[in-house]
Amino acid sequence: xxxxxxxxxxxxxxxxxxxxxxxxxxxxxxxxxxxxxxxxxxxxxxxxxxxxxxxxxxxxxxxxxxxxxxxxxxxxxxxxxxxxxxxxxxxxxxxxxxxxxxxxxxxxxxxxxxxxxxxxxxxxxxxxxxxxxxxxxxxxxxxxxxxxxxxxxxxxxxxxxxxxxxxxxxxxxxxxxxxxxxxxxxxxxxxxxxxxxxxxxxxxxxxxxxxxxxxxxxxxxxxxxxxxxxxxxxxxxxxxxxxxxxxxxxxxxxxxxxxxxxxxxxxxxxxxxxxxxxxxxxxxxxxxxxxxxxxxxxxxxxxxxxxxxxxxxxxxxxxxxxxxxxxxxxxxxxxxxxxxxxxxxxxxxxxxxxxxxxxxxxxxxxxxxxxxxxxxxxxxxxxxxxxxxxxxxxxxxxxxxxxxxxxxxxxxxxxxxxxxxxxxxxxxxxxxxxxxxxxxxxxxxxx
Length: 447
Known about the structure:
The chain has two helices and 38 strands. By secondary structure, the protein is mainly beta. A hairpin with a 2-residue loop joins strand 32 (386-388) and strand 33 (391-395). The longest helix is centred in the N-terminal third of the chain and has 11 residues, at 12-22.
């Protein structure tokens, strides 16, 4: 199979009372510490987020970010972190590694970048004001491999535990910084080679482990690995029999145990996140594994959008090969996106194709509630939908954010714009929505 690449209102008094009621859980509920939020599902528990804005309304601040990055902003209390890649001049003699596909040398027509100098940066901002607190250069030089021309060498989203922020730049390394900007440790991992299209999967945390899904080219060297988050030392590594992917895994609790759910073209596999031992497997998405899993109702939902369109609902808690068992609850064969991930809100799973046309499915049965839910304006979409309360935010590449009411009927209740292109999913934290545009980072909320 030839692979191609495309290139997350209450009054002040009520809000305070609610914050007191949730006590210790408030921090995890309010922060956005990783790709697609607190548990990777793209769902926020915030209750006072503004859902309408304009240049003179509900824009708390706007900060210019140098270079280009497709990583989501992450937020922990009053700190916000982003990564970026700044492209420089041509480096004489620099060239990408060679890739093989089905026994022949493969060069994607949109592969670029390895012949130029790049500076990869980690930037910390004050989440309240947008002021830069610190920035560090993690790596610079001519990259080991190309990237898709619409992508960036700063595509993986960082993750934080509130003490360190962990940033991964694929072949250019893994870097852990404390909140003052001091490098705690760094580590190089071999590859992964991704057909010259760039790294897309983001790191996640499980307890004291930092986990990376490293699927490469034809799959001969694919693996998933866990490192001690405190010093970067390898704890376990498990080979994977899957070709290159760009999906970020999730950790789900099921039947009293944690399951690390990974998407792949050949196989969907769940591991014990503490040991790397395989728990169960089933046939993969049989296509480019780019959208990340979501979960709920005791199930995981995995999707793909090119060349096959498919959603698979899998009951968690299985063992061994579950392909021909009741653990495969339902499948749906249309309406999915190449890049963006689904979102689960209550009893309904929402998928969107590349033109932003939404299909709503009953999560438990797969029954279509509606399909053909079109955005108000024609557009293309790469950012994943995120949800806050009973509202879904759908962000187009034009920078328009459509607010869709969750439920079995499609209803767009607001349209907002930041005025510049967007390919990155929003982050939601502490009463604000953070949107990364092509050149700027926007904080939507009260000043």
